Amino acid sequence: MKALYFIGIAGTAMGNLAIALSQSGFSISGSDAGIYPPMSTMLEDHKITCFQEYTVENLLTVKPDLVIIGNALSRGNVEVEYVLDNRIPYASMSEIIHDEIIGSNAAIVITGTHGKTTTTSMTTMIFEQAGKQPGFVIGAKPGNFPYGCRPIPRELYAMGTGICIIEGDEYDTAFWDKRSKFFHYPPMIAVINAIEYDHSDIFSSIDEILKSFRLFLRLIPSNGLLLLNADDTQALQMQEFAHSKVETFSTEGQGDWNARIMYQKDGHTIFECSYLGESLGEYSISMIGSHNVRNALASFACAYHSGIVPEDIRAGLQAFIPPKRRLEKIGMWNDCMIIDDFAHHPTAIRETVGALVKAYPEKNIHAIFEPRSNTTTRNIFQKELGECFLGVKSIVLGPINRPERFGEDERLNVDQFISDYELHDITVKAIREESHDWGVHAIEFLTQKANKGDIILLMSNGNIGTLRTLLT
Questions:
Q1: Which residues contact 286 (CB under 8 A, 6 or more apart)?
Q2: What is the topology classification, in CATH, of domain 328-470?
Q3: Which of 10, 89, 172, 365 has the smallest CB count inside 10 Å?
Q4: pTM for the whole thing?
Q5: Domain covering 3-88 in this structure, CATH number
């Protein structure tokens, strides 16, 4: 039995991959600096040995055949240094996904700045409902499956007749491989949902991101398929660089695949789907927002071109449960509905706020946003962040994460943020001092501002001041 050791095993993607490979027959162990539930419990349930700190003794104890190094790790880590000094075979997470999850099987790779997790989850559920037994890699906790990664059944994997559905991230692979992760996932079908500037710690400009996507297109074989979001200018321009068949999808009537929203309320949407001008009927999803309908349309096209009939696609979409933190209703507080969303880019914030305003026009929305990513802690999107919350009643702006990384002239200007929304009579409570439990101050503000029946919207890719615990 081959022994694999994960440095940084408690990360969501690393932990789920570790569990998937343990199910495939590998001996798995790993280490991380602080492992806590739910990942610690999930790894323990699969009898995976986890060391609570990075030490050379861990590697001496396990004596792994191969070490997988997470992209959060860098030179200077004692285990990384030991692996390099002693020439122990090592690989990135993306390389292992390529070798052990995809192999020689067909892959559907979902990419883009927004919508990757939801679209990958929807596509996976359609294939599962149709009996295709797909392998998958999803960058969050999916609603329909216990884990975010699952291997193709070994008999299908060995024959190369399986299908794997992969969330293709544009973020870098590892400290020695600064290419986007999706370069390791050669697709038969690829989706580009949107392309915007993000990950300012990796990309210096939108041009660098566009170049990465253009190069990714070279991996699609000539008999493959590229699906592009026709409602996104940057994504649509990729058709110029394609070496395969290209189709487009749209919620604005501009694509080969089009969706017309017919009903949207209480967390559900019904839409009509058409392909090349021919109606394929009505479909429903348990999400709101035109962006999520567009995600469903991309999933529909992936399944349709993989031989799945519309009736099975309809069943898969109806059975779909959204992944965690995607417009997720997580509880009630003072008779207010608490909705948790992963949105941390101005476009994603605008779409999420817009979806809630349309679905609940009679309710006041109070948004709590944590500027945490390398992009939103800086003033790169100062103007966009000053507009994307329009439609809410009030905003709590959490403290800028690790502000010392940037000079004052580079950081998000909080005073400007407040001024922008004062022009629209939107009250902003800015919490300026960093603290892991700054949510306590947010609750003090909400106690004064939120009334019975209002919606409290949490928006962050982090812990958001422990508010998920404090409010539920």
A1: 267, 268, 320, 321, 322
A2: Protein-Tyrosine Phosphatase; Chain A (3.90.190)
A3: 89
A4: 0.87
A5: 3.40.50.720
